[in-house]
């Protein structure tokens, strides 16, 4: 039951790389982080290539926050490049990255986003089977946004900020958009991830009430009010700000944030199954859940890569474990719904 971010559209015309290559690239990336200079150069190159291909793009987090939130003499590092692209240009952007030597980690590991919960996918630049350490996260919406990506993009790209990168000027989110993203990013990762919480703490202290009111309006427009409010409430001054902005209760969202590491495998598949429209969609979810791609099986069971017989054995083991995962996911879902019900209580 692969549940991480994934491309929803196959790119069968591209040369196939072995899943072991993607795994090696990912592991090497974790060991050898690129310098900020290399990341900035890669970001500028990708942004120029997207512009040449007609793909509208906004810079997220990383350099955008380093230049707008942090003051002179302060350091805000980053280990990858985050770019928000127009949904209509997403497929073109994927092709541009592929042409420049990047490969999708999610595709290489056979991960499929059945529940539509993904908001981005990760691309790593490789030379042969070896990673250069440069990764680009290609986003098509912000975390927590519930409106269709096209509507969210229209709202987020309507007003823009600008930063300098490699001596050139590139677009980023507006100040209100950055504030919204800082809060939803904290909600996405929770209090155990220090960087998003540090960004949020500084943003609440340094940005004006007018900026946060604009962020709240933008959150409502893209259906991200719950994530925005829950993110703010992860830090003390943000909790006060959420009250001042009149944001709704978020017990359900806060419960999910607090229990995100306990979320059992199969949770997104259960959501996809219960949210399916008709028997045909339910059968598709079941087939994808019970019979995932060989790349995903090899990722979960490395010993299964050596022979076809081992792969079949691993598939059998996956089928045996699926009912246990489904039961745990159902229990987790009931607990989440119970916590969310408190938001509606008088």
Q: Based on CA inertia axes, which overall geometry fits?
A: globular
CATH class of the largest domain: Alpha Beta
* CATH T-level fold name of the largest domain: Beta Polymerase, domain 2
Tell me the strand percentage band.
Answer: 5-15%
* Radius of gyration over C-alpha positions, nearest whole angstrom: 21 Å
Number of helices: 16
Helix content, binned percent: 40-55%
What oligomeric assembly is this protein in? single chain
The assigned CATH architecture of the largest domain is 2-Layer Sandwich
Total strands: the figure is 7
Reading the helices and strands in chain order gives HHEHEHEHEEHEEHHHHHHHHHH
- In whole angstroms, the N-to-C terminal distance is 38 Å
List low-confidence stretches. Answer: 1-19, 27-31
Write a concise keyword list for the protein shown above:
Beta Polymerase, domain 2, alpha+beta, 2 domains, 5-stranded mixed beta sheet, two-stranded antiparallel ribbon, globular, 346 residues, 16 helices, 7 strands
Compact overview of the structure:
With about 350 residues, the protein is α+β, with helices and mostly antiparallel strands. The protein is built from 16 helices and seven strands. The strands form two sheets. It has a five-stranded mixed β-sheet with strand order 1-2-5-4-3. A two-stranded antiparallel ribbon has the order 6-7.
């Amino acid at each position: 039951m692969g549940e991480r971010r994934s491309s929803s559209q196959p790119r069968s015309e591209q040369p196939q790389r072995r899943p072991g290559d993607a795994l090696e690239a990912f592991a090497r990336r974790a060991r050898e982080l690129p310098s900020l200079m290399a990341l900035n150069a890669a970001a500028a190159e990708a942004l120029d290539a997207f512009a040449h291909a007609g793909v509208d793009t906004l810079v997220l987090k990383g350099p955008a926050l380093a230049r707008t939130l942090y003051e002179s003499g302060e350091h805000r590092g980053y280990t990858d490049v985050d770019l928000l692209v127009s949904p209509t240009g997403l497929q073109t952007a994927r092709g541009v990255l592929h042409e420049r030597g990047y490969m999708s980690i999610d595709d290489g590991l056979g991960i499929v986003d059945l529940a539509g919960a993904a908001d981005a996918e990760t691309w790593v630049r490789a030379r042969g089977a070896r990673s250069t350490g440069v990764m680009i996260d290609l986003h098509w919406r912000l975390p927590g946004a519930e409106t269709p990506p096209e509507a969210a993009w229209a709202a987020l790209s309507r007003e823009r900020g600008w930063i300098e990168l490699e001596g050139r000027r590139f677009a980023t989110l507006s100040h209100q958009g950055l504030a919204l993203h800082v809060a939803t990013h904290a909600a996405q990762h929770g209090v155990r991830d220090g960087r998003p919480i540090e960004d949020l703490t500084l943003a609440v202290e340094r940005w004006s009430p007018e900026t946060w009111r604009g962020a709240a309006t933008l959150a409502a427009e893209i259906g991200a009010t719950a994530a925005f409010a829950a993110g703010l409430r992860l830090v003390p001054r943000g909790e006060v700000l959420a009250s001042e902005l009149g944001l709704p209760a978020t017990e359900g969202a806060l419960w999910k944030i607090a229990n995100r590491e306990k979320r059992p495998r199969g949770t997104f598949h259960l959501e996809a199954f219960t949210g399916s429209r008709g028997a045909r969609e339910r059968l598709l979810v079941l087939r994808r859940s019970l019979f995932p791609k060989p790349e995903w099986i090899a990722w979960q069971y490395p010993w299964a890569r050596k022979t076809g017989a081992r792969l079949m054995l691993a598939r059998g083991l996956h089928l045996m474990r699926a009912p246990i995962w489904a039961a745990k996911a159902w229990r987790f879902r009931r607990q989440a719904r119970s916590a969310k019900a408190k938001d509606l209580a008088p």
